[in-house]
Amino acid sequence: MAANKKLLILPGDGIGVEVMIEVRRLIDWMAKNRSVSFDVDEGLVGGAAYDAHGVALSDGDLDKAMSVDAVLLGAVGGPKWDNVAREHRPEAGLLKLRKEMDLYANLRPAIVFDALAEASSLKTELVRGLDMLIVRELTGGVYFGEPKINETLADGTRRAIDTQIYTSPEIERVTRVAFELARKRGNKVHSVEKANVMETGVLWRSVVSDLHAAEYSDIELHHMYADNCAMQLVRTPKQFDVMVTDNLFGDVLSDCAAMLTGSLGMLPSASLGGADESGRRKALYEPVHGSAPDIAGDGIANPLACILSFAMCLRYSFDMGDDADMIEKAVQNVLGGGIRTSDIMQDGMARVSTTGMGEAITMELDKLT
Ligand code: IPM
Ligand code: MG
């Protein structure tokens, strides 16, 4: 028999802790009803780790993350740590995980659930049925490029430098992920950069074009400047299937795409590394939303993004697509049945707490099995 699947849960800060409890409920449900058991370990990241260890990720928890099959992360950050030095800030824990685990491909789907189409800030007809996937490069670019400096010059002028660097292998490997995923979806990729201004953009465009010509010419490929892309996202979002872009543009454009769907509280993400000899990829799954300090502790956070991140984990790390489909179906049915957390509340619907939503999902799963 195969070894148990190993999971590391890092709830992090704020509502990360609350939504992760609902994922645990789901894991327990699966052990009972689907005979899949996970070895679950738990650790600290972000402000929680800083408070306990003085760093945003301890070496012990990093070692654990490196050795498990998948990491589930809640969220990091909060005003409590605003004055902590940058290298110890909550975000540094997340960036360290991304870098050390070499999670270069960040998958951020933006899906509009039918029941929520009216919650979008755009006209319903523009977003109904939207199902796009942003593949964001996650371990390079301006986030990690050196030099990164903040200094005062001899004449008293202050100067800061960030550096955008990309190499052709970095661009090629993330583009390959996007092309492979596009083949399983709508077979269309938009590659996004600023080749009109940036040398990294020129390189990006040429590496993507070369890979396309050599191995993926069956895929419809478009090149788009990032500013135009931002405009197109709010103009006609349904023109997109898969988008591949660098770390910074991906950060910005994925927030925009997320908002199109009406609720940040609904969106999951997966961050994947390269495959080892056995085909296993290091992987981390997290909701797109942050730690939401304003509502932390109130028990009203929407756990669905975190639950859907767990579904992505089943699909990408454990090849359990049927179970992932089932969880996604349960989410759709619960929303269709009018159950809502506060963030997606609509007239005439039933408002539930974080726990209430988690229970509604497992009850729906009981019905589906
Ligand atoms: C994200 C977040 C992070 C990022 C922060 C928390 C460092 O905004 O995952 O999109 O900028 O990548
Ligand atoms: Mg972001």
Distinct small molecules = 3-isopropylmalic acid, magnesium ion
Per DSSP E runs of 2 or more residues, the count of β-strands stands at 14
CATH topology of the largest domain: Isopropylmalate Dehydrogenase
Distance between the termini: 24 Å
**How many helical stretches?**
12
Q: Which second-level CATH architecture of the largest domain applies?
A: 3-Layer(aba) Sandwich
Gross morphology: globular
DSSP strand content? 15-25%
Q: What is the CATH superfamily of the largest domain?
A: Isopropylmalate Dehydrogenase
Count the domains.
Answer: 2
Mean pLDDT: 96
Helical amount? 40-55%
CATH class of the largest domain: Alpha Beta
Q: What pattern of helices and strands is seen along the backbone?
A: EHEHHEHEHEEEHEHEHEHEEHHEEH
Structure characterization notes:
It is a single chain. The protein is of the alpha/beta class and 369 residues long. The chain has 2 domains: 1-130 and 261-369, 3-Layer(aba) Sandwich (Isopropylmalate Dehydrogenase); 142-247, Rossmann fold. 41% of the residues lie in helices and 21% in strands. The chain is built from 12 helices and 14 strands. The protein has a 10-stranded mixed β-sheet, sandwiched between helices. Strands 6-7 form a two-stranded antiparallel sheet. Helix 1 (15-33) links the parallel strand 1 (5-12) and strand 2. The longest helix has 19 residues, at 15-33. It is globular, with a radius of gyration of 20 Å. The model has no long low-confidence stretch (mean pLDDT 96). Bound molecules: 3-isopropylmalic acid and magnesium ion. 3-isopropylmalic acid binds at residues 91, 94, 251.
